[in-house]
Amino acid sequence: MTGQMEIAERISSISVSSTMKVAADAEKLRSEGVDVVDFGAGEPDFPTPDNIKQAAIRALDQNFTKYTAAGGTADLKKAICERHTADFGTDYKPAECIVSVGGKHVIFNLTQALIYPGDEVVIPVPFWVTYKDVVNYAGGKCAFVASDEGNGFTITAQMIESALTPKTRMIMINSPSNPSGAVLDRQEFEKILHLCVKRGIYLLTDECYCHFLYEGSPFSIASAKGAKDNVLVAGTMSKTYAMTGWRIGFALSPAPIIVAMTKLQSHSTSNPVSIAQKAALEALTGPQDSVAAMLAEYSKRRKYTLDRLRAIPGVRCAEPGGAFYAYPNISAAFKQGIKDTMDFSVKLLERKHVAVVPGEAFGTNEHVRISYATSMEQLDKGLTRLHEFMTTFEQRA
Length: 397
Ligand SMILES: Cc1ncc(COP(=O)(O)O)c(C=O)c1O
What we know:
By secondary structure, this protein is an alpha/beta fold. The chain has helices spanning 2-5, 9-12, 19-31, 50-61, 74-88, 103-114, 129-137, 157-161, 186-199, 255-266, 274-285, 289-310, 341-352, 376-396, and strands at residues 37-38, 97-100, 120-125, 141-146, 168-174, 202-206, 231-236, 249-252, 325-326, 354-355, 357-358, 368-371.
């Protein structure tokens, strides 16, 4: 029996996310009837807009319930390209587009299609948990680049350049960032693109939160002159349209890469859910006002969360320029017997019933991630509890 139970080695190259423990403990407490405030969830608290839900219902009524092309329907690919053109001025064609089962699937497929064993992938820290594991799973090596907390976790082209080696195959940028909310300056983004063009490496731009920007207008590096051969756009419907459960993401990239990804997808998931594709089509071609309405709400919550966090003794918090996360530095608690960010998160949940995500999941040692994609009432309750939690240390000191 032992031999049969041995798990393939490639699985040991990926780790169980350390976000899972706090989420599982929070769920357990909730099932016991405890009033848990959940700042852990990385998803909009808004329902999917009604026009999108109605499109899915119509798809069901019309029996649009069969297989589609493995890489997504022709009309959805066309709509993705047209929306990207309308929003950012790019000029992708359907042959340069694939629809996958969420943005995570897109990033998995892109790394599987492009990374050779030993290739290096440059990733700014803090990073979204999945990047590290998909690179490792593809046999690549992560080259992490620390960002500057004092500057709101921003990075510069110079910081990226210092991590480049002859083995670098790809740079992964997520702006606005999960978990810090940091936004990469447009000029620096363009300089990073030029580094990629000069050296013949890929620039993967994860545009998951690109519509949730608090200052200036959203842009895509794919619209820069001469970008298309090197840029890989990873997009998703999940956050922009409050569609996390529908599982629709997309890539825009040179056509041969789309062909490779489609081949891989045709032997794994095959097509994304047919009904969800119809819903995504409506999201992209129908009214866009729900996106602005959500952004306006996040904007209020961001200000409230920042003000409350900065009023807590010992807490520092950089201003997030986008997305819906705050990434406060809670290291003051380490002087009071808290070991690390995981210990902080576990004790905060045990003692005050507030769930946050420990920064170690994102590659930093002094922070926790707070999602403000939740109601003002929950924000008030949870931030009051966090304040009390931190103040306990102050009083003991
Ligand atoms: C930075 C980032 N990229 C991509 C994704 C993928 O989202 P999905 O797979 O739901 O499309 C997420 C989800 O949390 C994310 O935070």
